[in-house]
């Protein structure tokens, strides 16, 4: 990688519900006509000094916000960073879905408002109609299941860490056996798969072909058998489906109306825990592991807007947005360059989120970066938001 440096143009400040006290006298006045943020001072620093004088200084409670210009050769890009310190009692990071449902799209500003949050960035990749691309668990509710391909950011036992998607497991627990779950709130894409549908998916299973269906209410099997179309999802339960080919006689002997049944997931997630499957891993144990190609978007070697989520050496979650596709303002970066910036910012583990025109950061009542499509917000399926702790 070519030698590079960072130009600091906006200092860290601490945000709370009662006041916003800058660490220095720099005043952020909002976006001007060209979409840049006006500040009262501009100070040039080496990147190592940047970390020392901003992220390591003043361990007060609050949210740390930083903006700087990154340079790779003759290319410069605007970078926006939010860090949520673990050693404060005000705020925490959590994922959100549009309308708090499996399907749909909203602007980031709308999701921040709906979640009573103070900040946020765009979330991960999604399938048709906004269904999240991978594990999404929050408030002991299971919205979507794993892809077996990408890293999952987890908050559990009061700490943030990454797991592999393939390490999540789910089972239908009957009195004498456990049956593996292949999917949750998703179409039947493969033969004989066991898919579970809960009320977060909608009113029906939307499966318009022959399959075996088991309706569960209050953890009791109400009915089971072959069906030819979609089934209603009870508000106090869920529907288990088995795709073709299947052994009807065997399934009827296993799923007996009146029997108790439960869903069991590993790892066990408590009320305040959450899990969010991201895109490709960028940084692992402080090393650049960014790929050149993604199963979600293809090549990662273009100079594009990017969004990432990571964990630094203090265990703090960090959100980063890099603007791009706007020559004269911000060029954009490759995935490997994004990983290099994250590492320079003391990030030890990180993963990619959706990017391009979706890359956006919202903080203190406004969009602080300049999205690449006319500077406008783009509807999105998910987000990471910073909320006040209960």
Supply the key terms:
single chain; 390 residues; mainly beta; 2 domains; five-stranded antiparallel sheet; 4 helices; disordered N terminus
Descriptive overview:
8% of the residues lie in helices and 39% in strands. With 390 residues, the chain is mainly beta. It folds into two domains: 202 residues, no CATH class; 98 residues, no CATH class. The strands form six sheets. Strands 1, 2, 3, 4, 5, 6, 22, 23, 26, 27 and 28 form an eleven-stranded antiparallel β-sheet that branches. The chain has a five-stranded antiparallel β-sheet with strand order 7-31-8-29-30, with helices on one face. A hairpin with a 3-residue loop joins strand 24 and strand 25. The longest helix has 10 residues. The N terminus is likely disordered.
Number of domains: 2
Fraction in helix: under 10%
The residue-averaged pLDDT reads: 87
Task: Count every beta strand, where a strand is a DSSP E run of 2 or more residues.
Answer: 31
Number of helices: 4
Nearest-angstrom radius of gyration?
Answer: 23 Å
Basic shape: elongated
Measure the end-to-end span: 44 Å
Q: State the major sheet.
A: 11 strands, antiparallel
Structural class: mainly beta
| Poorly predicted sequence stretches spanning 5 or more consecutive residues | 1-60
**Portion in beta strands:** 35-45%
Short description, anyone?
The protein has helices at residues 47-55, 108-114, 248-254, 335-344; strands at residues 4-10, 13-15, 20-22, 43-44, 63-72, 75-83, 91-97, 117-122, 136-138, 141-144, 151-156, 159-164, 169-173, 178-180, 183-184, 194-197, 211-217, 220-227, 237-242, 262-266, 274-277, 281-284, 287-288, 293-294, 298-299, 306-312, 317-322, 347-352, 361-363, 366-367, 382-388. It is mainly beta and 390 residues long.
């Amino acid at each position: 990688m070519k030698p590079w440096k960072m130009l600091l143009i906006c200092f860290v400040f601490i945000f709370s519900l009662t006041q916003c006290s800058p660490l220095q006298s720099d005043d952020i006045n909002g976006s001007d006509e060209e979409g840049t943020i006006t500040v009262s001072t501009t100070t040039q620093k080496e990147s190592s000094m940047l970390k020392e004088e901003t992220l390591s200084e003043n361990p007060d409670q609050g949210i740390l916000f930083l903006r700087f210009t990154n340079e790779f050769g003759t290319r410069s890009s605007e970078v926006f960073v939010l860090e949520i310190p673990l050693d404060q009692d005000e705020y925490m990071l959590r994922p959100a879905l549009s309308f708090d449902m499996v399907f749909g799209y909203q602007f980031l500003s709308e999701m921040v408002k709906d979640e009573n949050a103070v900040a946020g960035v765009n979330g991960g990749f999604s399938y048709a109609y906004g269904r999240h691309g991978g594990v999404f668990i929050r408030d002991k509710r299971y919205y979507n299941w794993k892809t077996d391909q990408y890293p999952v950011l987890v908050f559990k036992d009061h700490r943030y860490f990454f797991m592999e998607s393939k390490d999540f497991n789910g089972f239908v627990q009957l009195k004498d056996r456990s049956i593996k779950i292949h999917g949750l709130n998703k179409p039947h894409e493969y033969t004989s798969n066991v898919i579970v549908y809960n009320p977060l998916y909608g009113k029906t299973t939307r499966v318009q072909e022959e399959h075996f269906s088991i309706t569960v209410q209050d953890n009791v099997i109400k009915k089971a058998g072959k069906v030819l179309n979609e089934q209603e999802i009870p508000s106090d339960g869920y529907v288990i489906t088995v795709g073709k080919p299947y052994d009807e006689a065997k399934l009827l002997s296993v799923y007996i109306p009146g029997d108790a049944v439960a869903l069991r997931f590993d790892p066990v997630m408590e009320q305040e825990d959450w899990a969010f499957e991201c895109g490709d891993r960028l940084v692992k144990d402080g090393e650049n592991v960014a790929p050149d190609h993604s199963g979600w978007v293809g090549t990662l070697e273009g100079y594009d807007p990017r969004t990432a989520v990571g964990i630094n050496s203090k265990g703090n979650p960090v959100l980063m947005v890099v603007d791009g596709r706007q020559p004269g303002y911000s060029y954009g970066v490759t995935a490997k360059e994004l990983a290099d910036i994250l590492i320079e910012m003391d990030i030890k583990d990180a993963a990619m989120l959706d990017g391009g025109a979706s890359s956006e950061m919202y903080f203190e009542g406004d969009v602080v970066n300049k999205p690449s499509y006319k500077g406008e917000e783009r509807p999105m399926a998910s987000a990471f938001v910073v909320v006040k702790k209960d």
